[in-house]
Each structure stands twice: as C-alpha cells, then as structure tokens.
C-alpha cells in the first residue's frame, strides 16, 4: 500500500474529473489517498487529510506552481513528488494529465526514477540579528523592490567575504532547478537540475561590470541593502515572502532537505528544454520551405 498525498490547484478546469479518476483507480493500484484541505470537498465524502509523517509520496495536479507549493509542505523527509501537468508549460511536472493512469501504474509498481533536487534555506534577520522569517525554496529566493522606480544598492557577501556592491532592481539566489525560472529571465545561466550550486544573478544591474555568479553549495550568501525604496520584498518561489526593510539581512544557503522528484525514463531535461523553451533552435527556420 502506497500512502499518496494529493495536492492540487482548484483554478484548473477539469480538476474534479481528474480527482474522480484518481479515486476510481486507487483501490486497484494499492494507493491510499489523502488530500490537502482545499481539495477535500471536491474529492468527495470521506476524503482523508494529509497527515505529516504518514505520506509515502505526493501527487500534484496543476502546474509548476502547484509542485513548488507541494515541495514546501512539511510532510516528512525525502517524500518523492509526482507532478501531473494540467496547465500549459509544466516544466517541473513529470507528464500531462492524459497520462495520469499510466503514471499512477508506474508509481505503484516502482517503475520510476527519483531526481534529488537541491533546495535553499532562506532567512530574514532583523536589525538586532534575530531571525524573523524562514523558508525553504526549490526554485529561488528574490530580493526586489516593489512598485518604485528606484535602484536598490546591496552589499553581497559569500562565506563572510565581500563579493561586490550591487546596484540593481533586485537579486536572485537560485538553485539549479530554478535556473530556468526567474534566473533565466534575468540573464542567468542554465544549470543541469541535479547539480548542486547556488546562482546569484542581479536583476537589471545598473552597471556593465556585474554578471551572474555561480557559487559552491557550501556558500552562505548574505545580502544587505544599503539604499533604495523604504520597503523591499523577499519572494520565495514566486509564491510566499515578506516585506523587507533597510537594516535587515537576507541569508541564503543550501538546505539540508532536498526534494525528490519522480521522473520516468522516457523523458529528459534536454528534451523538456527543447519542447517547453524552444531550446537550441529557431523553429521558423528549421521548418521545410513551403511553396
């Protein structure tokens, strides 16, 4: 019996039908289902809640954001996540919803691989040095301005050594998994997702002398804004965060809790890059000439 916790996004059309299919298949596959609180009414009567420590795997129904949210749930150590894509991009998810039944059968039979993805530990320290906020990030931690058209001046250190003073709209600290997210949009490098490294990428740097930086996983990155808008923001995986003030400190380092993501042998990182991000080609030039 596999205890499968289900996390889903109610904004996706067809979710009730997917949940009904899941409940129909579960008994024959030996799956014991539990659901996050927001899904229990949709899943039907008698739906059990997800209980930390009583989950063998997580199933996410939605897009990349749903998987990122599931990765931050405190359900236990090294619980693998199988992502089913109900949306458009689905870069982190494993397969489209049309392959739900096949994916569940492979999960139940153990016919899958697990990719261990590094995560980041992010803390906000107030002016007195006390931690006032703490998160784990699978993609990235971003310190950025709000709606003000002002550059933020930040002092960045790594393992106690000064790296540089950044004048930019913000700064992205990303994992290899998050290298294809905001980091990529800000001009950072693409890194193979199972590697371990911390990427530091300025957002719209106000100088030509600053470029993205690749640090070892042992680095502790400290960001201290010196000037800028009175109120800044820290955003984790684009989903949660807090306000941030001059005088406070953002501390980012490798977390000791990686996230295992389920993968099947018929997919690869580079295939996903080509299909989802049009990596390495210009489709309009690669097409055969038309008369």
Question: What are the main properties of this structure?
Answer:
291 residues; 7 helices; Rossmann fold; 19 strands; Tumour Suppressor Smad4; 6-stranded antiparallel β-sheet; alpha+beta
How would you sum up this structure, described in words?
This protein has 291 residues and is an alpha+beta fold. The protein folds into 2 domains: 2-117 and 258-284, Rossmann fold (3-Layer(aba) Sandwich), CATH 3.40.50; 120-254, Probable inorganic polyphosphate/atp-NAD kinase, domain 2 (Tumour Suppressor Smad4). 19% of the residues lie in helices and 37% in strands. It has helices at 15-29, 40-43, 64-71, 100-109, 182-185, 269-277, 283-286; strands spanning 2-8, 31-35, 57-62, 81-85, 95-96, 113-117, 120-125, 131-137, 140-145, 152-158, 161-168, 170-174, 198-203, 213-215, 220-227, 231-236, 240-245, 249-254, 259-263. The strands form 4 sheets. The chain has a 6-stranded antiparallel β-sheet with strand order 8-7-18-15-10-11, with no helix packed on it. A 6-stranded antiparallel β-sheet has the order 14-13-12-9-16-17, with no helix packed on it. A 5-stranded parallel β-sheet has the order 2-1-3-4-5, with helices on both faces. It starts with a strand and ends in a 5-residue tail after the last helix. 38% of the residues are buried. The model has no long low-confidence stretch (mean pLDDT 91).
Detail the topology: elements first, then pairings.
Elements: E1 2-8, H1 15-29, E2 31-35, H2 40-43, E3 57-62, H3 64-71, E4 81-85, E5 95-96, H4 100-109, E6 113-117, E7 120-125, E8 131-137, E9 140-145, E10 152-158, E11 161-168, E12 170-174, H5 182-185, E13 198-203, E14 213-215, E15 220-227, E16 231-236, E17 240-245, E18 249-254, E19 259-263, H6 269-277, H7 283-286
